[in-house]
Structure formats: structure tokens, C-alpha cells
Amino acid sequence: MPCTFCEIIRGEREAYIVYSDEEVIAFLDKYPVTPGHTLVVPREHYETIMEVPTPLLSRIMEAVKILSRAMFEGLGASGVRVVQNNGRGAMQVIPHIHFHVIPFYDGVEPRRPRPLLTREEAEYVLGRLRSVL
Ligand code: ZN
Q: What's the CA-to-centroid distance between 16 and ligand 1, angstroms?
């Protein structure tokens, strides 16, 4: 079965890339809970946290840390939530390990249901994050 995230990593599927290095890539979630909701994934395909080699997991967490800081500094977030789901029971939808990094803002409620990311929101968020990355 084709993997949506591997397609993004290979450049076969469009995404708004926030951060990229040799091992890790981060892009905006297509259905953001809040503006800036980002997914951090390893370039190599592993399904869950149990399969990822620990040194790579550590590299992923470095990116999570960098992005969290960027959300406070660049987006003016008052909080950042990091979420990682493993397996069907935890409602992992894409079987390629990913960390959700979700900024929260004073006075802004998380959106439910999650709306489709708009180009306008994506460009705003990318501009703000890139100014501090
Ligand atoms: Zn994959």
C-alpha cells in the first residue's frame, strides 16, 4: 500500500515543508487543529515508535524541539502540545511514525472538526516559522 508520507518525502505529493534535514522532515498537517499544526517524520519509513532505531528517534525529537521553540517565538504560541499515536487503537491513521506538534494560542480554540488547510493559512504560518528557524 502506498504511504502518503513517503510520497511527500519523495516529492510526489504536495505539502508545505516547514523543516528538513538528512534524516527528518516536517510539514504542515493537512487538517490543522490550530494554525501551525505540524507533523515531524523520519525520512525512512517505520510504522510505530517500537520500530524506529533510538538514535533516529532522538533526531526526530531534536526537530520537535526546534519546531516547538519556533512556535513560541515565531507564531506567538502560549503553549505547544506534542502527540504521537501508535496503532489502530490509538487512532494512528498514516502508518508512518509521526509526531504532531500543535501550537496553542490564548483565546483561540482548537478546531473540531479539523478544517482543510488553506493556502493563506499555510503561507502565513510558513513565513512566521521560517523567520525564526
Ligand atoms: Zn512511509
A: 17
Report pTM.
Answer: 0.97
Neighbours of ion ligand 1 (CB under 5 A): 3, 5-6, 45, 96
96 flagged as catalytic: no
Determine the distance separating the centroid of ligand 1 and the alpha carbon of 93, expressed in angstroms. 12
101 contact partners, CB below 8 Å, separation of at least 6 = 26, 37, 38, 39, 40, 64, 67, 68, 71, 80, 81, 82
pLDDT in tens, 24-55: 999 999 999 999 999 999 999 999 999 999 99
